[in-house]
Design a protein that fits this description.
The chain has one domain: Creatininase (Rossmann fold), CATH 3.40.50. Helix content is 39%, strand content 8%. Strands 2-1-3-4 form a 4-stranded parallel sheet, sandwiched between helices. α2 crosses α7.
């Protein structure tokens, strides 16, 4: 169920300790010539709404936090970003708002690679402040990596920023915003075996790059392989993984012992 559509008595009547609060977190940043700046927010919102449709009886879905951590994309006009500390404060204080209402289980559902490290810090800060709160950071593509790998057609490197997967999902959700005539495969190959290759083959080391250091157009991947049919399958795979995650969280499979204190 969606928080925005409820009244405060509705919220008060819920069994807060038996519901997972889902906070979608995304970005507003460049996505090449063919996808809009809101791509991550559109996709994350679409997946979170699909999750709500599959598990509305046990999740409370919050509005998508659209602006994320995107300083590496500022070299392309239109990108918005929060500083690291501001981003952490926004996430942690949003969670604290629902803690005040009695909720103790949270999923930070992420749809932007640049948010990942900070969301891991957010989960740590949330738990250290209140050990009885169970907060998880879940970026959707690692959760569904096995199924995503079965759906894709591109070679390694083809499923990155504005590549096969993101373009496919946008073709399913918002085809009117996709400029098909501007598709271009882009992105420098990474020579080190330890470096990032793909969203399904992440790097083994931490590296910070400005986006124009490895892409001329802002794309990192191959949008020419995208189809709306694959987009639907990507959404369904992410939804299945997230439903399982919700069930595991509510079953106490992450921090069960602390709950008994």
């Amino acid at each position: 169920m969606k928080l925005e559509q409820l009244t405060w008595p509705d919220i008060k009547s819920l069994d807060q300790k038996e519901m997972a609060v889902v906070l979608p977190v995304a970005a507003v940043e460049q996505h090449g010539h063919h996808l809009p700046l809101g791509t991550d927010s559109y996709i994350t919102t679409g997946i979170s709404e699909s999750l709500d449709g599959a598990a509305s009886d046990r999740i409370l879905l919050l509005p998508t936090q659209k602006v994320g951590s995107s300083p590496h994309h500022l070299v392309f006009p239109g990108t918005l970003t929060l500083s690291s500390r501001t981003f952490l404060d926004v996430i942690c204080e949003t969670v604290e708002s629902l803690e005040e209402a009695g909720f103790t289980k949270f999923i930070l559902l992420n749809g932007h690679g640049g948010n990942q490290a900070l969301l891991n810090v957010a989960v740590q800060e949330i738990r250290l402040k209140n050990p009885h709160v169970q907060a998880l950071h879940a970026t959707y593509w690692p959760l569904a990596a096995k199924e995503f790998a079965e759906i894709r057609d591109s070679e390694a490197g083809g499923m990155g920023h504005a590549g096969e997967m993101e373009t496919s999902v946008m073709l399913k959700l918002h085809p009117d915003l996709v400029k098909k005539h501007l598709y271009v495969k882009d992105g420098e190959s990474c020579p080190s075996e330890f470096d990032h290759k793909d969203m399904l083959q992440p790097g083994k080391v931490g590296v910070f790059r400005f986006w124009d250091e490895w892409s001329e157009t802002g794309v990192l991947g191959d949008p020419t392989k995208a189809t709306a049919e694959k987009g639907e399958r990507f959404i369904e795979a992410a939804t299945r993984a997230l439903v399982k995650l919700v069930d595991d969280l509510l079953a106490g499979k992450f921090m069960e012992n602390r709950e008994k204190d």
